[in-house]
Model the fold of this input.
Amino acid sequence: MLGSAEFTGCLALGSKVEYVARAHEHCVAGSTLPYGSSTYGWGVRAPVRFAQPVRYHHKPGVVVWAKMEGRGAAAALA
Done:
């Protein structure tokens, strides 16, 4: 992992009008909803780039959240 950010919320962008109106926030070119009416935007703030990348083993399958635990994560934030 190269960094972290705080998740602030989720917003449905299920209409073309809403998607285009928020183009300055998502920075994706075009007006086609990437996931149709199931398109959502994630709000994030306080991005932090780690001083050194943190190794992370990705298990097979879907991973919804990745928890940073142990000394490696703490050292990366220093």
About this structure: The longest helix spans residues 71-77. Helices lie at 16-21, 23-26, 71-77. The chain has a mean pLDDT of 82. Residues 25 and 52 are 28 Å apart (CA to CA).
